[in-house]
Amino acid sequence: MSKNKKLKREQKKKTYKKKQATLQNNRNKQVKESNTNLSFNLVPTEFLIAFPNFKIGKDEIDFLSETNTHLNTPAYIYPINKKSIHEKNLVLKSNGLKPFPYYESGWMVISTENMQPIGTFDKLEFAKEFIYSTYSNVKQIRYNSLGLKSGCPDFSDIPNLNSSVDKEQWIEYCLYLEEQYGFQFDSQELIDIIIGKLIDEHNAPTYLQEEFYSDGLIDPIINFIKEKELISYKNAFDALISFEENISKINN
């Protein structure tokens, strides 16, 4: 990987962070503009969205670019706690309405049509069941990172690098991680872990990792892999180097 590619990768990370910040601001604006003070006005940094596709597709990418509509993504699920319950009920009471019957902690389903709460549940699975039964077009519920799981992968299930794992299997593994974690999966982090295994298990020089950190250099690593005839490592790098720009559903 050239230094230009490394810079490009870092720029993509910044773009994602900016998208998240923009998304947050626009959701807040949408909330404030709908039904004056009666809309739910606390947008969490992590929440779930009801999508019409089983796999990541156009509607999921539209959500990132904020061109989705409430017809395609009809509901969100927000985590709730005592603070959010108290603030919401203050708004309701000040408008002469009865407090909403919240659980003290749990999950709130929000209609994206007007950003109003339409149900609260003590367990996430119940909130999901409610959405599936209410909206017939919903096929999958994802976090706002577009992943099915919260947080980042720990790569504990990485394929065995000392066995005959081909390039297609590595691509399938990367696509699986993207499906599970959305853009929280970074193929460059997986490359870093594999370099660490080269150092620990095959006595690769540590400067290979240092050069990858500082300049994004991949060629010296590939040369070492070829010299040692580490086929599975070569297949892994063949897949990972091209994943973000040519294979990823989110980045392309």
Description of the structure:
- The structure is a single chain.
- The chain is 52% helix and 10% strand.
- The chain has nine helices and five strands; from the N terminus they run αβαβαββαβααααα.
- The chain has helices at residues 3-33, 58-65, 82-94, 124-134, 167-181, 187-202, 207-215, 219-228, 231-247, and strands spanning 48-51, 75-80, 106-111, 116-121, 140-143.
- It is elongated and about 75 Å long.
- It starts with a helix and ends in a 5-residue tail after the last helix.
Question: TL;DR?
Answer:
This protein is α+β, with helices and mostly antiparallel strands and about 250 residues long. Helices cover about 50% and strands about 10% of the residues. The protein has a five-stranded antiparallel sheet.
Give short descriptive properties of this protein.
252 residues, 10% strand, disordered N terminus, alpha+beta
Number of strands: 5
Shape: elongated
Distance between the termini: 19 Å
Helical amount: 40-55%
Number of helices, counting only DSSP H or I runs of 4 residues or more: 9
Secondary structure layout plus pairing:
Elements: H1 3-33, E1 48-51, H2 58-65, E2 75-80, H3 82-94, E3 106-111, E4 116-121, H4 124-134, E5 140-143, H5 167-181, H6 187-202, H7 207-215, H8 219-228, H9 231-247
Antiparallel strand pairs: 1-2, 1-5, 2-3, 3-4
